[in-house]
Design a protein that fits this description.
Helix content: 55-70%
Number of helices: 4
Largest sheet: none
Shape: flat
Length: about 70
């Protein structure tokens, strides 16, 4: 990493299996929600996202903001 270039890691089969299981479990859990439950969760996450925008979304450095002005 000293060169500054990023080299991706190749996942092992065990790591891929873990990810596949997590995705399968997530899909199952979301499938168990009623439409009303899903909407309430969606609205809550959306509200939290927008109320914490500076935490969740990368903020442009001040120098970049100044350059745009």
């Amino acid at each position: 990493m000293e060169s500054g270039s990023w080299v991706h890691a190749v996942l092992t089969q065990d790591e891929r299996d873990v990810i596949d299981n997590l995705i399968r479990d997530h899909v199952f859990q979301v499938g168990q929600l009623s439409a009303g439950e899903f909407e309430r969760v969606y609205l809550q996450v959306r509200q939290e996202f927008f109320s914490n925008r500076n935490i969740l979304v990368p903020v442009k450095p001040r120098a970049a903001q100044a350059a745009e002005s």
